Every structure is written in structure tokens, then in C-alpha cells.
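Researcher: Go.
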Amino acid sequence: MSEVVKHIKDITAGVGPVEALTELAELFPGEIVFSTSFGWEDQVISHMIFANKLPIKVFTLETGRLFRETYSVWSSTMDRYKQPIHAYFPNQDLVADMVNKKGPNSFYESVENRKECCGIRKIEPLKRALKGNKVWITGIRADQSINRHDMENVEWDEQNQLVKFHPIFNWTLDEVKAYVKQYNIPYNSLHDQGFPSIGCAPCTRAVAEGEDFRAGRWWWEDQSKKECGLHEIKQH
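Model: Structure:
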């Protein structure tokens, strides 16, 4: 698959995000999707897709544990652009079995339990959302965490057997905020309360100035690489 990755790198090199997304949408019609969790970066990319009427399916993972502010920006985004955002829910039998056996807050008890919860609420629905597609667009930026510096803007995702493209990978947070302001894009009000990264409500808190971008995610865990498994970090 290195040829596909190289080809995408070639056609997206030196062009802006909208141009790159346009090229990919034409190259992979009906086989390109964008996953949003309604954070700043994802709202920027949603705007690029919707405002330019690009034929890229936008989806989100409805874990059942989202903040009310996330639902608010979800609604505001649909009101603004009049475009669908496809929701993928966890398998209700898997959720019920986990909760019945371990209770509703088992993810606080161990890393294994937390990963089990992420697997059921996020990873399994993601696999359904990505099935049959060839390109997955994300809002990842390089400076979001030390771990993500190991990534590139175009990658082969072995787990899901497709190419991942991060159109604003090299943007700074200030550039993201400026874009949101310039186009008056709806954004999650939790960002104004110290939440740089917004996931499930029980697993996300605000961070103090100077703390790492991911410090607010699974803050009770003592580990350096806190990812849920959606974006596996390649080791070099």
C-alpha cells in the first residue's frame, strides 16, 4: 500500500487543505469519510467539506457518554450547513454485557477496563463507519501531543486497511482558532473552559495552563501514551 500513500502524498503536497480534500474526493468517490468529535480542528474540516460541498461523508461516534455541549455544537453544525452528520452507536448488547458485569464506571478501575470501554463504545463502531472506504480524514495536528509528532500527514492504517489523511496536520492551535473566528464556525464552548481535547464526559477534564494537550483525557491513569486506540502510533 506504500504506492497509494506515496500517490496521495504527491497530489496533496504543496496545496491547501481544501484543495487536497477536493483532489481526494475526486480520486476516491464514495470511498472517503471524515470522522468528527466536534472539537476545534474537526469543526474546521467540517466547514471545509460542507461549505465547499465536497462529496465526503461526515460521521461521528455517539458513545452515549458525550457532553451536553458536544450535542449542542453537533446541532448547531447541522443547522448551519444543512448537511447530515452520520452517527455510529455502540453495539447495545456489548455495552449492556459490560455494564451488567462491571458496573457503569468500570473504566476508572484499570487501564484494561478503560480500553475495554473504548473498544466497545468507539473502536467497534469506528470499524463499521470505515468499512468499505479507502481514505479516512481526521483533524489530528502534530503539536497536539508528543506522541503525534511520530505521525505523518498521510499514513497507512494497517488496523483498518485504509489511508489516513490529516489535512491540517501542520497547523498551530492559533491558526485553527483564527480560522474558526474568520468563518464564524460553531465550536464547542468547553474549549473556552480549558478543554483542549473533548471526549466522553466521564473521561475528560479541563487542563491547567502548561499541561499537555492530552492531560485532560483519562487523567487518573499514570502513563505517557494515552490514546484510546482510534489512532495507533507507529513506533520507529
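Model: The mean pLDDT is 91.
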